[in-house]
Specification:
Blueprint lengths: L18 H6 L17 E6 L7 E7 L3 E7 L5 E8 L4 E6 L5 E6 L3 E6 L4 E7 L4 E8 L4 E7 L3 E5 L8 E4 L4 E7 L2 E6 L3 E6 L5 E5 L8 E8 L5 E8 L3 E6 L9 E4 L27
């Protein structure tokens, strides 16, 4: 894995970002900082799928690069490789077998990074920055789903130059998630649309947003049988909604506040946007 050597290390002498600050501040959770971090803000993260025997971390950032680290059992990281776009990288996604990574960028393209050969090729194109990218593995097809600020959702066979399907959105795509056979897309104007992916992708139902302010992230959750049944939705207001696609009871859907300062400061409370969320299945 990770063929080639020209882009294999991010710097000649990897260093821990903010190591001086770590020495002077307590670290009760024993967090481990990633070595050789991006030169600008990280915009997206994704850990490798279980198909790989080793753990890897992919990060896209506003410096227009996408980087990969090996994550050891003690949490320490080893820089492995990096590739570049012509604009900030807004989203990343792994293929189900862990051999490839897909990257979405403000340069209006999506690229496929083959980690075995360390080669990167363009596999999708939009008329505006691409905000989301997801790999779909269905029984009868495999494809890449891309959502853009050009108000389209597109599905791509990575071997073909044109999309398999294009779905027009009412507004710009701001967030999305996929857990087969369900996809959900959040758009500007607080729009939410659920899609079913069986057979071929098609709209299942629009959903009235449970939040009053603009969405920033969405994550699908599963029921006890392992089927997608709802989603968690984060907004710029420091609030998350937990919402079932077909709730049995109204009380099943709820919201909660988060990422806010404790108490008031000169009559104001600091509220921070929820930019990412991940739902983990805990052992019973």
């Amino acid at each position: 894995m990770f063929g080639g050597t020209s882009n294999s290390i991010f710097g000649a002498t990897p260093t821990v970002f903010g190591s001086g600050a770590t020495q002077s501040n307590p670290n009760p959770m024993k967090d481990v900082e990633v070595v050789s971090p991006p030169d600008d803000s990280a915009s997206c993260l994704a850990f490798s799928p279980a198909a790989l025997s080793q753990d890897f971390l992919i990060a896209g950032s506003w410096d227009s690069n996408v980087r990969c680290w090996e994550v050891q059992q003690n949490g320490q990281t080893i820089p492995k490789a990096q590739q570049s776009h012509q604009g900030p990288v807004l989203d990343v996604a792994w293929s189900d077998d862990g051999s490839k990574v897909f990257t979405a960028s403000c340069d209006k393209t999506v690229k496929m990074w083959d980690l075995n050969s360390n080669q990167m090729i363009q596999v999708a194109q939009h008329e505006a920055p691409v905000k989301t990218v997801h790999w779909i593995k269905a029984p009868n097809y495999s494809c890449v789903m891309t959502g853009s600020w050009d108000k389209t959702l597109k599905f791509w066979d990575t071997r073909m130059p044109n999309p398999m399907m294009t779905i027009d959105l009412r507004e710009r795509c701001y967030c999305a998630d996929v857990v087969y056979p369900m996809a959900i897309v959040g758009t500007a104007g607080r729009g939410l649309i659920v899609y079913q992916l069986e057979g071929q992708p098609q709209q299942f139902k629009p959903i009235e947003s449970p939040l009053k302010y603009q969405h920033r992230c969405v994550s699908i959750f599963l029921d006890k049988k392992g089927a997608p049944t709802g989603f968690a939705l984060g907004s710029i207001e420091g609030r998350v909604a937990v919402h079932y696609v077909n709730a049995q009871l109204p009380k099943d859907n709820f919201t909660f506040k988060c990422h806010r300062s404790n108490g008031m400061n000169n009559g104001y409370q600091d509220i921070f946007a929820v930019c990412n969320e991940t739902i983990y299945e805990l052992p019973v």
